TrEMBL record:
Listed GO MF terms: ATP binding; protein serine/threonine kinase activity
Enzyme Commission code: 2.7.11.1
Keyword Nucleotide-binding attributed: yes
Compositionally biased intervals (Polar residues): 552-570
Broadest EC class assigned to this enzyme: transferase
Composition skew (Acidic residues), residue ranges: 308-323
Domain spans labelled Protein kinase: 28-290
Record-given protein name: non-specific serine/threonine protein kinase
UniProt-annotated binding residues for ATP: 59
Length: 860
């Protein structure tokens, strides 16, 4: 396979004809590169032999299959994916391993683009609601089909949702799917895109509910134009997905029906058990916002509502414990009876669950059920240009219907929506008759009706204490025969007491109560071992943070010092040549070492044995031989013919001369030389200032949030113009210092450790806890190699339970009308409550039945 070439004008990666012979994988000719991601490269390809086949998309994975076990696993997963035959799953048509050992998957080429393309064209605006729900339904049906066959997608995102030429959604990229029954499922490595990953997926745990979370992320983005969390840093996304609650979708799209928002937020619950049990339950909840008209034209065929039960064999009750029945009958688009559904919903609700939006008014509890004939005349109309809010139209003909009412929520939500924080634990009580509708505003009446309905669902708990108002006492005394004057006096006295005690007087005598909750606090300390590596990306699953290798420019200084070594050279002897002459007619010998004394007294010794040839008159026999002065020194440098005399025999037949002067004789001389200590001392004087300057330069290279792994390495480099032992009067020494070291980002470590601690707190004590102050960390770093380090982090903090306004309001309804001891018992059983302080106004023995008269706060 050839290397990728540069992109063309359309952004595609073209492969030239000259490269076509080698630009192939298996039996496929690569036409151009369609895209490149973190795990693979995708090419548009065509079969080399079967030319009539349409073009395909070939995905080449980056991970080589370098062991028999990995190859066997790839083959097993490829065979599993081959069995996924569904109208909304992009089919796998081929798979293999190329010559370099890299696996590849071949699917049909979807020419309709991806969901990401549609979102880009929307430019940050939500898609039309019918289109968004149709896409989610089609993708959901594909996911449910895969789940039933033991496959989890794990990387659901807009890039993996493709479209046919006819606009049908196709779910793609099952390349990282796992067998649902795998023993290693809970320990699986993190795979996926952080912007769409479920909280447990960051911990390496995946399940069907992980895909439900990703599908909820997809629905959030389609209906709002925004991602659940807009960050791009993997560590930040991990923290936000595991710890933070997303913005409600209607913050971005106010026209979105409240039940759809509630369904999406439940799909985004942090805990798997708080989400929908499976994909069908989630999709049904999304479609439940239209209780009068059934599925739209584009949802009737492709939505999960139109045949999913037949496919799975499970009824709605099996899909979701909180969803008792579907909100419409797809066969005839029939709407269940409103009051029947209201009763069923109220029986299953708890006060800790959320309620529909404030713009929807629930029917009064006393309102009779409407006849089916009346309801059948109501019809659903699609949203107008102003937004998505559906309008409930009056029947075409009929009296008494009044003005059309604008609806932005449903008449009924099929399943309760989890509020922020744990559910409320309820103590049941005996029911009381509701006040007359004229005694309070309609909104207050509706709230009280819902609270009483929820509390009356199981009346096996503590009975409410009887109470009598002060007016009831006055009336009783009047019946006992007290005179009119006595009654007036008592009334005046009672009014004075009430005024002095500060009790409010409006619309009669109103009761009040003040409740102070002390939230539970927990202190947690943990030690984590992280890895920091150069060039690595933040990887929460492997506890990996990025690191950088920094180096400073070299800094140099020089200094000249005198050489401290002293020595002297020994004297040398002069060298020369002596010529011997023989006056006899026979040869004569002179032995080596024969000493001859010059005219100035310098003694010279010959260096070899010689034999002087015989004389032949009128010529003498002669021979020359090297000689040296016996003593060293310049005195041996004799001039020519300083030796010109008879020698060696008593008959004076041998003559010796030095025809040339002797040279090289030298007297002993003193000199200085460079010692190693001269170089070391000069370097030691220069090094400290240079190292300090280099370390300051190293510190300037670090960002404010970066920390060094130990001290930077600042080894000085020393050079000199003379080496130790060289004869010189002085030496120049130069010192060069450059610092290098490994640094890591402290904020990344703190973010990761904070997320880990928060997750530990949630596992140990439940959700709803927040740190009271920033997490305290102590980091110990040690080098583990040239480009990696091990970080040991001791982290600790204190967490306090945070009560939301909706939780406090729910608690008000829970304790309304109870006596103080019952109220304290109920509140102390709630998650996150450490203690309760309760005070009543003068003369009260029970809490007000009206929750608005109860003030409940949580200690900061």
């Amino acid at each position: 396979m050839t290397r990728d070439q540069g992109p063309d004008e359309d952004g595609h990666q073209e492969i030239t004809r000259q490269q076509a012979a080698s630009a192939r994988i298996g039996n496929y000719l690569l036409l151009r590169r369609l895209g490149r991601g973190g795990f693979s490269t995708v090419y548009l390809a065509r079969h080399l032999i079967l030319q009539s086949r349409p073009p395909v998309a070939l995905k080449r994975l980056f991970t080589p299959l370098d062991s028999p076990e990995i190859r066997a696993r790839f083959i097993e997963e490829a065979r599993l994916l081959e069995e996924l035959h569904h109208p909304h799953i992009l089919p796998l048509v081929d798979a293999g391993i190329d010559e370099e050992g890299f696996p590849y998957l071949v699917t049909l080429y979807a020419a309709g683009g991806s969901l990401r393309d549609r979102l880009r064209r929307a430019s940050g605006r939500p898609l039309p609601l019918e289109e968004a729900l149709a896409i989610v339904a089609q993708v959901g049906k594909a996911l449910h089909y895969a789940h039933e066959r033991g496959v989890i997608h794990r990387d659901l995102k807009p890039e993996n949702v493709l479209f046919t030429d006819h606009g049908e959604a196709l779910l793609a990229d099952f390349g990282i799917a796992f067998l649902l029954g795998s023993r290693s499922l809970e320990q699986a490595s993190v795979s996926g895109t952080p912007a769409y990953m479920a909280p447990e997926q960051f911990r390496g745990q995946v399940s069907r509910q992980s895909d439900v979370y990703a599908l909820a992320c997809l629905a959030y983005e389609l209906t709002t134009g925004h991602r659940v969390f807009e960050d791009h840093d993997a560590l930040v996304l991990m923290y936000r997905h595991t710890q933070e609650e997303p913005q409600p979708p209607r913050v971005y799209n106010p026209h979105l029906p409240a039940p759809i928002e509630a369904a999406i937020l439940r799909g985004l619950a942090k805990e798997r058990t708080d989400r929908y049990a499976d994909v069908p339950s989630f999709v049904r909840a999304l479609h439940a916002f239209r209780p009068f008209g059934g599925p739209g034209q584009d949802l009737g065929e492709t939505g999960l509502m139109a045949g999913l039960d037949d496919e799975t064999g499970a009824g709605p009750a099996e899909d979701d414990a909180d969803c008792e029945s579907p909100l419409w009958d797809t066969a005839g688009a029939r709407t269940p009876d409103l009051q029947t559904r209201l009763a069923a919903a109220d029986d299953g609700e708890r006060l800790g669950r959320g309620s529909p939006g404030s713009d929807w008014r629930w029917p009064a509890a006393s309102r009779p059920a409407e006849p089916p004939a009346e309801r059948s005349r109501e019809r659903w109309t699609p949203p107008g240009p102003s937004g998505y809010g559906p309008t409930l139209q009056p029947p075409a003909s009929g009296a008494g219907r009044g003005t059309p009412e604008r609806q932005t929520g449903p008449a009924l939500v099929s399943s309760a929506v989890q509020a922020s924080g744990p559910g409320i634990i309820e103590l049941a009580r005996l029911s009381r008759p509701s006040p007359r509708p004229t005694d309070r505003p309609a909104s207050q009446e509706g709230a009280q009706t819902r609270a009483l309905a929820a509390l009356d669902a199981g009346t096996t708990g503590l009975p409410a204490s009887p109470r009598r108002t002060p007016l009831a006492w006055l009336t009783g005394w009047g019946r006992r025969g007290l005179g009119k004057l006595a009654l007036i006096s008592l009334a005046i006295l009672l009014a004075a007491l009430l005024l002095m005690s500060g009790l409010p007087l409006s619309r009669g005598l109103l009761l009040s109560a003040r409740v102070q909750i002390v939230p539970a606090t927990h202190t947690l300390q943990r030690t984590y071992t992280l890895s920091a590596r150069v060039g690595a990306q933040a990887d929460p699953a492997r506890l990996l943070v990025p690191a950088r290798l920094l180096s400073t420019p070299p800094q140099s200084q020089s200094r000249q010092v005198s050489a401290s070594g002293h020595a002297s050279t020994p004297g040398t002897r002069a060298q020369g040549v002596l010529t011997f002459y023989n006056g006899k007619f026979i040869p004569q010998a002179v032995p080596k070492g024969t000493t001859i004394t010059a005219s100035n007294g310098v003694k010279v010794s010959i260096d070899a044995d010689i034999s002087i040839p015989a004389g032949n008159p009128p010529n003498f026999g002669q021979i020359s031989v090297s000689a040296h002065a016996v003593d060293s020194g310049s005195a041996g440098n004799i001039k020519a013919l300083a030796i010109n005399q008879f020698c060696c025999t008593s008959d004076q037949t041998i003559t010796v001369k030095n025809l040339q002067p002797f040279t090289g004789g030298q007297d002993p001389q003193s000199y200085t030389f460079v010692q190693q200590s001269d170089i070391d001392n000069a370097a030691s004087a220069l090094t400290p200032a240079l190292v300090q300057s280099a370390r300051a330069a190293f510190a300037s290279l670090k960002s404010a949030s970066e920390e060094s792994v130990g001290d930077p390495q600042c080894a000085p480099q020393v050079s000199s113009d003379h080496r130790a032992g060289d004869r010189a009067a002085s030496v120049t020494v130069s010192v060069t210092v450059a610092c290098s070291g490994l640094v890591y980002d402290r904020n990344s470590v703190t973010t990761l450790v904070t997320a880990l601690l928060n997750a530990d707190v949630a596992r140990s004590y439940g959700g709803g806890y927040r740190p009271t102050q920033p997490i305290q960390t102590q980091i110990s770093a040690a080098r583990a190699g040239d480009q990696s380090a091990v970080l040991t982090v001791q982290a600790s903090g204190t967490w306090r339970y945070q009560f939301s306004a909706s939780q406090l309001n729910a608690l008000k309804q829970l304790i309304a009308g109870r006596d103080p001891e019952q109220a304290r018992t109920i509140l102390r059983r709630q998650p996150g409550v450490a203690d309760v302080t309760l005070s009543l106004a003068l003369g009260q023995s029970t809490l007000p039945t009206d929750p608005t008269r109860i003030t409940i706060t949580a200690s900061p």
